[in-house]
Amino acid sequence: MPSLQFTEGSARPPSPRAQNKQLLVNVVDGLANYRPDTVWAKIPRNDQTFQDGFQKVTYSKLANAVNGLAMWLEKRFGKSLNFETLAYVGPWDIRYIITILAAVKAGYKMVFPSAAYPAAGLSQLLKRLECRKFLVASADFPLASSLSEFMQLDIHEIPSLMSLLETVVEHYPYEKTFQSARGEPLVVIHTSGTTGPPKPITLTHDWAAAWIQRNQSSVPDGHSSRERFTHGIELCVVAPPNLSSSLFPNFFGALANQITVLFPLPTSPLNIDTVMELVRRNDPSMIIAPPFILDNIATNPSLLEEVAAKVTTIGFGGGPISKTSGNILARRFRLMGMYGTSDIGVLHKISPAGPWDAGAWNSKSIPRIILIDPFLITTGIMFHPGEGLDFRKVPNEEVFEAVVVRNRDPEDEQAVFKLFPELQEFSTRDTFMPDPEREGFWMYQGRIDDILILSTGDTVNPLEFEDRVSAHSLVAAVSMVGTQRPYTALLVELEAAACEDLATSIDQVWETINDCNNLFPPQIKIERHHVVFVPQGKHLPKSPKGYVQRKMAMEQFKDEIEKVYTV
């Protein structure tokens, strides 16, 4: 896909060139100069209500806001000469994007700590980045003060969003070329915490350019690109603004492909009401949302009709979708699963050319590591060959690990090798199964880290068992353990309401566990005395995405687990 090429201070209009890498700060400034009225985002006019409608944030306004905040940073802290890390926390608005570009111009780099993590863990993340300056949208954000209990922080309140958008300032130049700045930091994201404490990942300008190049690359003959569905459209992304699941489409994807993105009220909850307000008052062609949001749409006929009047494509990630919801949505939308990680980004998906097959979102029979689960479905994905994925069979398992093999041409290598230039291959630790009905499609099965290897030599994938027990109304969270043990055990956290009549609640939950025992192979069977109910007041550790962090749970409750195996 040709993209306009911009450089700082260019006196001539940009010319289309295919796949030429450039800096995103220059893209924003260039579009502000030559296409100033092009819309990047739409945000509520009033930050207290949706009733006043939405206002357009053009590239001219975005560039002005970036310049204003860059000036504010330089005036407040001076210009950084060593890419000092600044942290920011704020409400659900576009200042997350503005701070990234403003920090680059002023010589800094941003990181966005997630309030879903305990302050102690986040303090370790910030210490690792040598981050001491913490930016906040307003003084009433408790995360900064919570972190101050674990480390010394210099807290600063940044200008309001309306001030940044409406106060006209002079252009703040960024004089570096792509070649000179390609290895410099663009933004720091951190891992989701699904497998442990958050770890920083510094994405460079070169990483962003390589990812965009893969996203825009031409497809093999006889195929079409699923990424092209998003180029130039209005997009509704349902994800907190500080997470990579929001930054990839709203920042990297939108700026490179002139996508218009939607933002809700700053204090909006992550729920179906927020989604419907965005849809009703705008014209999105696509929604990207977690499965629980899509379940709400699929199971409410009036909401389904309302969304279908505007939206043509739905993408989902963060877990499987129910078969019932998937079948309903697939009849009305192009429904597709998303796959990506913090290191490699969201990968380019393709499909055979021709009309969209509404039944192709899921196969009639879905093999899993241990069993066929008829209730939870993950879609098959065909990946662009330029992504370099090699699926390698996991020993003693029926699944394959996705390994990224480095492309030979240095200018065509995948983004992940900008992070790990010493590697020729990158192990994703994610497992897939080949779609039994569609050649070339692969179906996500879970992390290798999820697989429990018992001391008997048996292997267990606990995900479906955990999902079924977690669905019980009295259960808050579940985690199965058993690696290097002779049998499995189950950690169960009950909802607060269950503690009112604890004995009865435990009996009811045990009935569900025992029902699962009758559905699953014997190596996964849970005996009643192998169930550990988490003491009241304690919680299984979770990532910001809501997943139980298995390794951290095993460490936190190691004494309780040990008792199961020593009785």
Automatic annotation (TrEMBL):
* Pfam short name (any one): AMP-binding
Question: Phosphoprotein: present as a keyword of the record?
Answer: yes
Arranged from A to Z, the UniProt key words for this protein are: Phosphopantetheine, Phosphoprotein
What SUPFAM superfamilies is this protein classified in? Acetyl-CoA synthetase-like
Organism domain of life: Eukaryota
Asked if the record carries the keyword Transcription, the reply is: no
Gene3D superfamilies recorded for this chain? N-terminal domain of ligase-like
Q: Domain AMP-dependent synthetase/ligase spans what residues?
A: 46-350
InterPro entries per the UniProt record, alphabetical: Adenylate-forming_Reductase, AMP-binding_CS, AMP-dep_synth/lig_dom, ANL_N_sf
The protein's name in its UniProt record: Acetyl-CoA synthetase-like protein
